[in-house]
Amino acid sequence: QVQVVESGGGLVQAGGSLRLSCTVSGLTFEYAGMAWFRQAPGKEREGVSCMSYIASATYYSDSVRGRFTISRDNAKKALYLQMNSLKPEDTAMYYCAAEQYYSGGCLARDFGHWGQGTQVTVSS
Fold first, then answer.
1. Sign of CA dihedral 71, 24, 98, 114
2. What's residue 82's pLDDT?
3. What are phi and psi of 58, to 5 degrees?
4. Could you read off the pLDDT of 85-108 as tens digits, one per residue?
5. Residue 78 near residue 23 (C-beta atoms within 8 A)
6. Is 26 left (phi over 0), alpha (psi -120 to 50) or beta?
7. What is the Cα–Cα distance from 110 to 123, expressed in whole angstroms?
8. Spatial distance between the Cα atoms of 10 and 111, rounded to a whole number of angstroms
9. Which of the residues 35, 43, 85, 109 has the least number of beta carbons within 10 Å of its own beta carbon?
């Protein structure tokens, strides 16, 4: 059984930073494509950043590129999202997603394993 668990959300002022973490069990992590998605109230789920298992190729949405950094530690079976220069519009529930052998685009429908989410709130 695959388990995906996020942590690290919280309340931060605009301009601040947060680091999200995600741990995965039940998958061969080094061969898993990993992703961070977010969903704000009344909005569709958005692909924030994705990382392929192939050479750790990465994707960032235009809204976060240059401010957020995705990384992974295969030994710890962990995925991270370093979020800097946070803006109020970054406020959302952030979800970690995993899919074995996934190396495609950052599309929610392609990921079969999801965490429960961690709330990020950025105050102005």
1. negative
2. 98
3. -120, 155
4. 999 999 999 999 999 998 878 999
5. yes
6. left
7. 32
8. 25
9. 109
